[in-house]
Design a protein that fits this description.
This protein is of the alpha+beta class and about 675 residues long. The protein has 16 helices and 36 strands.
């Protein structure tokens, strides 16, 4: 592949709802541009983008893949992203490296939840958006309906560039509104001139006037020309639309059929004309905005990592300044280490194409480098660090364990590699509850991770409902005696402690130990043994095996034997006293309460609040925000949020989002306490 200068590069994230046709339109562009000789199909599992075994098996994208295509003297780096919400981290990484976004919409399904989320993601990253309405060959596709839906959401910035032509109810071509000419599709996505049908004349005139007016509004000179009835030149149109698109003032709407490669050629042409080259963009490094400039020393940012046992590990990066070659070692700002780069690649799906150099703004890959997603690298002496991609926080978690004994290390190794690839996966060792937890955006993502572990690394884990981190404490007082006596010939074991147990009021500290022993009933040298017995006792409480908090234990009396007493004897006596005293002092379970914030459209607020009540939640407030949405804030027991991700999506058609943070512990209701105590008893049996 040729080396392209910064001005001739377009980095484009392809976004949209799951199943809208993103991978198919990327495949069509690769075919039309000549990058591939024939188009693959998602259903056949032979597309460039979806090469992972899980993607082939499930027939949808799971990871972002890069597909560079060459068209009309420019290189377009297409970043094909997953549309399913569980894999949002992949889309977030792609958008962080993109200079423009194409949001694909199924012409039959219309604007879906994933369309709106894709637009919000692009807007959050300040990336200009155009829409591509695909599946226009479907008899039920309705381009006009899609445009109206988009205008309802995003207003007058929605600007159709084309109008479909249908003959005998079949999609056969389009009218180019800018040039006011008709086109009819031939084979392989090509098209020829075609007369504009008479029945489209009024619609074309109306839509074109709106487009020309948008162009006129970009400058006073063009506005004067518009009012005088003069036609704009092609240069004026391209300049005005390019500027408006880059500023986010206009969102072009294109059309076609990915499966037939119709519209792919037009889409690449429009990307060449109107999408910004990296020269017109900047990369953030804290408060600094760094321009993409090939004349400066090398700096680059890693935006994605691929770890595959078959194709190896690749660090995908975008060059920000300078020219990337293999001549000099690179310096990783994060690790403060240098390393040699022997080969430089661009990836096209799973194919690694070796290149000599990459200019600022281009996307490439290094194999087997000690680099992680978000790292900045360049020449030695580099100080600045570019911002890492903004990745969603995972809140869904499941308990996992190895199916085969002795494979814990293999599981940990496999998970480590998966987490290198997917920054929304998180592995947590919950030592308190003796469980390991796998966090993700949703349960489907976690299940895919488990499937990858089996397929790639030959380790099998099972997923179960996680234990919630309850706590145990007491509400009453009790005075008990703990006795440990053992005689077995020779020295025996003897220790007696009399202890008071009561609430300490300090829920941050497991146990506070005091002593009020008089007359040397328990020698001072055994006090540390008593304290150690308490420390061991609070790790797993007598009620349901959860950690103990908020207990005050006072040693008031006891007995000892000058020969048979030992530290072990007093430690054991203390453990016995603790169990007895704790259960006599009105023991209770404390459950973790989280502050939950749910963002939903106003229409779903009632359903969400009703569901919150079923989960024992207390609504704290409702704040209206832009876009007809509101944030509902509530305090909810963490145990009631199991499966909430799935339930919220079901309630809101997939558009609801939530996050939570730990607030405090509260006494659990009697029925919850009974359930947990019974569960513990069953475990012991």
């Amino acid at each position: 592949m040729n080396v392209y200068e910064t001005k001739d590069i377009r980095n484009v994230a392809v976004l949209g709802h799951g199943g809208a046709g993103k991978t198919t339109i990327v495949e069509a562009m690769a075919f039309v541009s000549g990058a591939i000789a024939r188009m693959g199909k998602v259903t056949d599992g032979n597309t460039i983008s979806d090469f992972d075994k899980e993607e082939v098996k499930r027939q949808f994208s799971i990871a972002t893949s890069v597909v560079p295509v060459e068209a009309e003297g420019v290189k377009i780096n297409l970043l094909d992203t997953p549309g399913y919400f569980d894999f949002v981290g992949e889309a977030e990484e792609a958008v962080s490296a993109a200079d423009a976004a194409v949001i694909v919409i199924n012409g039959k399904a219309g604007v879906e939840v994933g369309t709106r989320k894709a637009y919000a993601l692009a807007e959050k990253n300040n990336v200009p958006v155009m829409f591509f309405v695909t599946n226009m060959d479907d008899d039920h596709a309705n381009f006009r309906n899609v445009v109206e839906q988009l205008k309802e959401l995003y207003g007058n910035k929605i600007a159709p560039f084309y109008v479909p032509i249908r003959e005998n109810e079949k999609f056969v071509g389009f009218v180019n509104l800018i040039k006011k000419v008709g086109r009819k599709f031939t084979n392989g996505g090509e098209f020829v001139d075609y007369d504009i049908p008479d029945d489209l004349a009024d619609e074309i005139e109306d839509e074109r006037n709106v487009l020309m007016e948008a162009i006129a509004e970009t400058s006073e000179e063009l506005m004067d020309k518009f009012f005088e009835g003069e036609e704009f030149t092609q240069e004026e149109i391209v300049g005005a639309l390019s500027s408006s698109f880059n500023e986010g003032d206009i969102c072009p709407v294109l059309l076609g059929s990915g499966i037939n490669a119709q519209g792919a050629k037009m889409l690449m042409h429009v990307l060449k004309l109107y999408a910004p080259s990296p020269e017109k963009r900047t990369c953030k490094a804290g408060d600094e905005e760094v321009a993409y400039d090939a004349s400066k020393p090398l700096t680059a940012r890693v935006f994605k990592t691929i770890v595959d046992p078959f194709i190896g590990k690749y660090s995908l990066f975008k060059v920000v300044t300078g020219v990337m070659t293999t001549e000099n070692p690179i310096y990783n700002v994060s690790t403060e280490k240098e390393e040699k780069v022997s080969r430089l690649y661009i990836l096209r799906g799973k194919e690694a194409i070796e290149v000599d150099k990459l200019c600022a703004g281009d996307i490439g890959a290094i194999a087997k480098a000690n680099l992680s997603t978000g790292d900045t690298f360049g020449l030695k002496g580099l100080k600045l660090a570019y911002d890492a991609p903004m990745i969603s926080t995972p809140y869904t978690f499941l308990r996992y364990k190895a199916v085969k004994k002795g494979e814990d290390d293999k599981v940990a190794s496999a998970l480590s590699r998966l987490m290198e690839e997917d920054k929304t996966l998180k592995n947590v060792n919950d030592a308190e509850n003796r469980q390991t937890l796998l966090y993700g955006i949703g349960e489907q993502q976690i299940e895919v991770a488990v499937s990858k572990m089996l397929d790639r690394y030959k380790v099998q884990v099972e997923l179960t409902r996680p234990k919630v981190a309850f706590r145990e404490t007491i509400r009453g007082k009790a005075t008990v005696t703990g006795t440990h006596k053992k005689q077995s010939g020779g020295h025996g074991q003897f220790g007696v402690v009399v202890m008071d147990f009561e609430p300490s009021g300090d829920m941050e500290t497991p146990v506070i130990f005091e002593e009020r022993v008089v007359g040397g009933a328990v020698p001072k040298n055994f006090f540390p043994a008593v304290e150690k017995g308490l420390a061991d006792s609070v790790v797993a409480g007598p009620l349901a095996g959860y950690p103990v908090v908020g207990v005050k234990a006072t040693l008031t009396d006891g007995k000892y034997h000058p020969v048979d007493s030992s530290e072990m004897a007093f430690k054991t006596a203390t453990i016995l006293a603790f169990k007895d005293g704790f259960m006599k002092a009105n023991p209770v379970l404390l459950e973790p309460i989280v502050t939950l914030a749910v963002t939903v459209p106003n229409d779903f607020a009632g359903d969400v609040m009703g569901d919150m009540n079923k989960r024992r939640g207390r609504v704290l407030g409702m704040d209206h925000i832009a876009g007809g949405q509101q944030i509902i804030t509530a305090e909810v027991p963490l145990s009631e949020l199991y499966g909430y991700n799935t339930d919220l999506r079901s309630m809101t058609g997939g558009i609801g989002e939530y996050k939570y943070e730990f607030a405090r512990y509260e006494q659990a209701p009697a029925d919850v306490q009974k359930r947990e105590v019974e569960a513990r008893a069953n475990e012991e049996e």
